[in-house]
Amino acid sequence: MTSAQILTVAQMQAAEQSLIDAGTSVETLMQVAGNGAAEWVWRIAAGRSVVILCGPGNNGGDGYVIAECLRARGLAVQVVAPLGPKTEAAKAARLAYKGETLTSGKGAKGDVLVDCLFGSGLARALEAEHALVLRDLASRAQSLIAVDLPSGVESDSGALLNEGLPDYDCTLALGAWKYAHWRLPSRSKMGALKLVEIGVEEVEGAAQLLAKPKLSAPALDAHKYSRGLCAVVGGAMPGASLLSAKAAMLGGAGYVKLLVDHAPASAPAALVVDTDPLEGALSDKRISSVLVGPGLGRDSDAQNRLRAVLAGPRPTVLDADALMLLRPEMLEKGAQVLATPHDGELEQLSRTFSVIAEERQARAHTLAKVSGMVICAKGPDTILAAPDGRIFIAPPASPWLSTAGTGDVLAGIAASRMATGKDAFTAACEAVWLHGEVARLASPNFTADDLAIRVREAYAAAL
């Protein structure tokens, strides 16, 4: 089974050191990584000639191992090394390589470029001469492969350290996933992602890549209340809460109620609309979860409706307007609360809870700890943070989700999952996966309504 952990540079270095302390040499690790990467390069090259750009560190050492492996198998290989190897393991790998090495890319000829210039330890921009060599070789290659990370990418943040970096067809992660493999903007440069295992153990506290959940059909003796009653609280703009309710109806809950002052004319027949005063409607002890925020508004009535929801201890999803109105004193200690902010709302919540963090992931992580809420920082690369420190990162979702109302659908799915009895973090993870799967299944240029009615298809895919 492929590991789902995502490591920082420091965590990866510590994990490799643990292998070394247990008796595995750096040279052996380099051979394992290089040979594993060479298998992928061999397949992608499919007989075509290969140029491998090697740097001075262990990433360059991996390149020499790859080159020798391919050369020994009869492939035409050239190595371009603007700088000689500086680590002992890289020097040994260079000595073991029996093929051609060039110090300049001018005479290099290859259909496939393998970038082993700099790996995950890079923290500053490529020097101009190295960036020029990389761009020149990339412009002449038919296929581009990055080993560990594309050169010019910062591993922990996913930042692009240079302008004009090439787009790769494939990136071969060595040992474990790094944040840059799944974070934007770096993810957009990497093409297909493959993980080359080298024996790294699971690291305590490491972030995880969001995976497909394993959902189940209702129990044989299930009824609508045992499957969970999800209440969606409406407000000034009923369309958004109605959209959330439609998604919640297909997200696993057995019963969905829309709590509004006035029944919307377009509500589906299967949706129960409750127009009783909110406090009374919320007193139903059968309610398993509540969603508040989509279409709520931001006036005094909206504030009162939010306070009424948070006055009860039931599991709650806060979205949209509720996130802008939320104040720390409204939250009960120990309550199961999931907040689903986009970047602007995340910034507002950070101000509300006095969180000081520049980077998006750090902001979500700290906010979860300070507030006690599970934070689903939604966007093209959604980050899920729990108060206990767990971090999950979702693979970048379909760009077609960048349309109004798709967040309301996500919130409805999450509330539905919480109604079935899932804790806030598990519900958030399941909802984000289902939301991404719905977008994948839907036709391009879909609307939020299209998404809501196709939640059942994504649910079926996880059974």
UniProtKB/TrEMBL annotation:
Keyword presence, Ion transport: no
Record keywords, A-Z: ATP-binding, Isomerase, Lyase, Metal-binding, Multifunctional enzyme, NAD, NADP, Nucleotide-binding, Potassium
InterPro entries xref list: Carbohydrate_kinase_pred_CS, CARKD, Nnr, Ribokinase-like, YjeF_N_dom, YjeF_N_dom_sf
Name of the featured protein: Bifunctional NAD(P)H-hydrate repair enzyme
Source organism of this protein record: Altererythrobacter lutimaris
Domain YjeF N-terminal: 12-206
Annotated EC: 4.2.1.136, 5.1.99.6
Reactions listed under catalytic activity: (6S)-NADHX + ADP = AMP + phosphate + NADH + H(+); (6R)-NADHX = (6S)-NADHX; (6R)-NADPHX = (6S)-NADPHX; (6S)-NADPHX + ADP = AMP + phosphate + NADPH + H(+)
Biological process terms in GO annotation: metabolite repair; nicotinamide nucleotide metabolic process
Gene from which the chain derives: nnrD
Its job: Catalyzes the epimerization of the S- and R-forms of NAD(P)HX, a damaged form of NAD(P)H that is a result of enzymatic or heat-dependent hydration. This is a prerequisite for the S-specific NAD(P)H-hydrate dehydratase to allow the repair of both epimers of NAD(P)HX.
UniProt: (6S)-NADPHX binding residues: 58-62, 119-125, 148, 240, 295, 342, 408
Entry note: cofactor: Binds 1 potassium ion per subunit.
Cofactor: Mg(2+); K(+)
Record-listed K(+) binding positions: 59, 115, 151
Matches recorded under HAMAP family: NADHX_dehydratase, NADHX_epimerase
